[in-house]
Amino acid sequence: MQNRHEKPRRISGSGQVWGKILTLILLFFALLQPISSSVLAASSTISTSQDTHLQEDTPDDNYGSLVDLKVRSKSGGNNRRTIIEFDLSSVPAGAFIESATLRVFMNSAPVASRTYDVHRVTDSWSESAATWNNAAADYDATVIDSKSTSTTNNVWLEWDV
What we know:
- This protein is an all-beta fold.
- It is 2% helix and 43% strand.
- The chain has one helix spanning 132-135; strands at residues 10-13, 16-17, 22-31, 39-55, 68-71, 80-86, 96-106, 115-118, 145-148, 155-160.
- The strands form three sheets. The chain has a five-stranded antiparallel beta sheet with strand order 6-4-3-7-10, with no helix packed on it.
- Strand 1 (10-13) and strand 2 form a beta hairpin.
- The two termini are 32 Å apart.
């Protein structure tokens, strides 16, 4: 049985389909030996371990089984939020992560440019149980990074996370 997290992900924004691949690219420096000043530069791509989107207008519904992820900021209680978790067990113990980039491929851009923020999720959640009512407020209000979408189709969007 294929793990559904090995499948490409799409994110939609404002009703538009956003992309196929959702990966976190980690660039980190790991110390070779605790007493050595030698440093090894390495790069890794880590896929999601779980992801879903939350819909304000259907606050008790779960969308964890869907492939598409949705993002929308709209008045009238019609917002969508995507939550993503990455399995970082492949990062060596003691490694120093110098930078990480969240990359999303946007197939269809919105009619007007939108700005999307990345926040840190502050509580545990489950892909099969997360809903707007039980997970939408569980994030740190501090914006990690923001990205404007522009109105150009078929582009990569990146956030420094």
